[in-house]
Amino acid sequence: MEEMMNKFFESVGSFFGGGDQIPWCDRDVILGCEREVAEANKGDSEEHKSESIMRLSWALVHSRQPEDVQRGIAMLEASLANTNSPLHEREKLYLLAVGYYRTDDYSKSRNLLDQCLEIAPDWRQALSLKKIVEDQIAKDGFIGIGLTASAIGLIAGGIVAALVRR
């Protein structure tokens, strides 16, 4: 019985706590990537510049700081139009999906993951993130339904109390 109770509380805790497996990135890593981009802009090949910008974008969308995530999203959206290879497009779409997930824009994240999976239907990373996003959408729906039901209950209780007092 105790084991069942522990499982119940663990599932409730993970439901409300999130618990995704997407890594976070520290500010030090971001600063290192920014230095790498600055050095690459001093004359390296276009391929090296592009790779260092992708690493910086990855670091930014995996940051705990909302302004970093927004900056990463902006960089990826700006570079998406210049993408020639389906592999690079897939990577950028995935990173955009991570960024939008981090900013709680789950529907945008899911749409980007769908585009990503059109390019590579069996890509495990994208499939895993899509499940996390869909679980979050469902959780938000349950919370919304609960809040709505509570509000309706309070209103109905207030009406009944007012009628009883008359």
List the helices and strands and how they pair.
Elements: H1 2-17, H2 27-40, H3 46-61, H4 66-80, H5 86-102, H6 106-119, H7 124-165
Number of helical elements: 7
Q: What would you call the shape?
A: elongated
Q: What's the count of strands?
A: 0
- Regions with pLDDT < 50 over 5+ consecutive residues? 4-18
Mean pLDDT: 81
Helicity range of the residues? over 70%
Sketch the topology as an H/E string, one letter per element: HHHHHHH
The first-to-last residue Cα distance is 49 Å
Tell me the Rg in angstroms. 22 Å
Q: Oligomeric state of the chains? A: single chain
Structural class: mainly alpha
Strand content: under 5%
Tell me about the biggest sheet?
none
Describe it.
The protein contains seven helices and no strands. The protein is mainly α. α4 (66-80) runs antiparallel to α5 and α5 runs antiparallel to α6. The N and C termini lie far apart (49 Å). Mean pLDDT is 81; it is low at 4-18.
